[in-house]
Amino acid sequence: xxxxxxxxxxxxWGMAALSAHNKWISLVFMRGTDLEDNDRLLEDTGKKVRxxxxxxxxxFEEKRSALSRLIKAASKLNK
Length: 79
Fold this sequence. Notes:
Largest sheet: 4 strands, antiparallel
Strand content: 25-35%
Distance between the termini: 22 Å
Structural class: alpha+beta
Number of strands: 4
Shape: globular
């Protein structure tokens, strides 16, 4: 657990986390600034962390392909 969110990792390093809120969920990328985000989904201004806010199932379906690309890219950062 990190910051109250369930973290998912690769090779022992935190890769991403899911964080539930009242009106959305956030998919948080621990090394978000290192990811190429051509679809401009990532939000925040921290040194490393970026997140994607999803407010509905429809929004998730709309962004599914771009999210998949981000997750795959994040999994390759800690190899």
